[in-house]
Amino acid sequence: MARRELDLDLAVVISRITSALQRALADVLPEGDQLGPRHRTVLAFVQPDGSRAVDLARESGQHKQVIGTLVDELEALGYVRRAPDPTDRRAKLIVPTERGHRQIAGTAAAIADVERRLAAALGEPAYRQFKQSARRVAEILRES
Predict the structure, then answer these.
(1) pLDDT for 35-50, tens place per residue?
(2) Which CATH architecture has domain 33-143?
(3) Which residues contact 118 (CB under 8 A, 6 or more apart)?
(4) Contacts with 130 (C-beta within 8 Å, 6 or more apart), sequence order
(5) Start-end of H helices in 1-144
(6) How many CA atoms lie within 13 A of 22 on its CB side?
(7) Which of 45, 99, 97, 90 shows the shortest CA–CA distance to 67?
(8) All structural domains of the chain with their residue ranges
């Protein structure tokens, strides 16, 4: 059994990390939070004064069609609204509502707390290296 734990593949390890993060967020975010990891990922990139869907797709690593669906869901739940882009009449901005701003701030605070605990447990240099490696893995997989 111990050997099997050491040989977990990347998908299982990432799934476990994601599940643990979601549980940590569920413990601190407001009751009734209906968002999943993909929603939170999109919200994390929405700028306070709004973002274009194409920028959210690029920054989050999601396909544009997926972003459209997630934004529709976020809008229906009251976290964002669509507004005209003042710099381009053809474009729309995804703008966080007051509820969206609270969610973004709450999620950021919860993640910061998790990161502080991980850095304390692993040591700051090891945690910094872990994050750097994880970012690089994401880049490599996105490029392939």
Answers:
(1) 887 888 899 999 999 9
(2) Orthogonal Bundle (1.10)
(3) 127, 130
(4) 118, 122
(5) 2-6, 10-28, 37-45, 53-60, 64-76, 98-122, 124-143
(6) 15
(7) 45
(8) 33-143
Q: What is the DSSP string of 57-80?
A: HHHHT--HHHHHHHHHHHHHTTSE
CA separation for the pair 80, 52 (Å, rounded): 12
Block residue for tokens 């934004």: 71
Backbone angles phi, psi at 102, to 5 degrees: -65, -40
Give the contacts of 110 (CB within 8 A, at least 6 positions apart).
24, 25, 28, 29
Residue for token pair 């998790």: 114
Question: Cβ distance 49 to 131 under 8 Å?
Answer: no
Token pair for 121: 């447990």
Q: Which tokens sit at 129? A: 């290296």
pLDDT band at 30 (very low <50, low <70, confident <90, very high): low
> pTM for the complete prediction?
0.81
Residue 123: what are its φ and ψ, rounded to 5°?
95, 140
